[in-house]
Amino acid sequence: MPIPASVRFYTYFPLLIPSIPCSIFILYHLLTNRTLRQALNNHVIILILILGLVYELTDVIWLMHYYRVGISLFQIPAFCLIWVFIDLGIFVTITILV
Hints:
This protein has 98 residues and is mainly alpha-helical. The chain has one domain (5-97). Helix content is 86%, strand content 0%. It is built from 4 helices and no strands. The protein has helices spanning 5-32, 34-38, 40-69, 77-97. Helix 1 (5-32) runs antiparallel to helix 3 (40-69) and helix 3 (40-69) packs antiparallel against helix 4 (77-97). The longest helix has 30 residues, at 40-69. The model has no long low-confidence stretch (mean pLDDT 90).
C-alpha cells in the first residue's frame, strides 16, 4: 500500500524546518572558529554540511512541492534533468564522503 503524497509532505515538512537552521548553525560555528576550521577531520564534515544544505534547499523543497501540488515546479525537461542531477549527484557524493 503506497503512502499518500499528503502524508509524505506532512512528514517531511516538520523535519525540514529545524533541519535548515541547525545545518546553518553548525556550519557557521565550524567556519568561524579558527581551530575547528583548521582541524583536518572537520573538512569532510564541513563539506557534508554544505552539500546537505544545498540538498535541503533545492531537492527536498522541490520534492515537497511535488508532494503538495502533484506536479513538478517547472514542467520543462531541463529542470527535470537538473533535479535528477542534483538528487543523484549530491546523494552519491554525501554517501561517498560518509
